[in-house]
Amino acid sequence: MPRARRLEAIEWTGTPAMQWVVPLVVGNGRESVETELSRLERWGRPRSVGKEPTKVRITGATPFGKQITWVIADLVFEDDQLLIRNTAGRRTQQQVTVTFRQYVEASVVRGPASKSKAGR
After folding, report:
1. What are the distances in angstroms from CA 83 to CA 2, 24, 32, 33, 40?
2. Does the pLDDT of residue 76 top 80, yes or no?
3. Cα 75 to the chain's mean position, in Å?
């Protein structure tokens, strides 16, 4: 940060949360995967206004080598050659790119205004 008549200062605003983009193919082309895809969509949305989205834990080998709690930041349903529908029009295979973002619980800090109200 530039400062008048002094050396500039460095401001640390934090470290960005980790992000992991995972291309998935859901389904085998034989049975409907509408339920699974709907569940994935629900996990990516907040449960209600002002609430957090569902936290996701991925087990098994990951590129990060440790257990991380994630939230779904973005879903992109690909409309390509991997999309298969049955005769009823239901998806039996769907490619979806899921962007996971590391979940970091927010720290609520009480400011001076909150302290003065609490002291009344």
Report:
1. 53, 12, 12, 11, 17
2. yes
3. 9
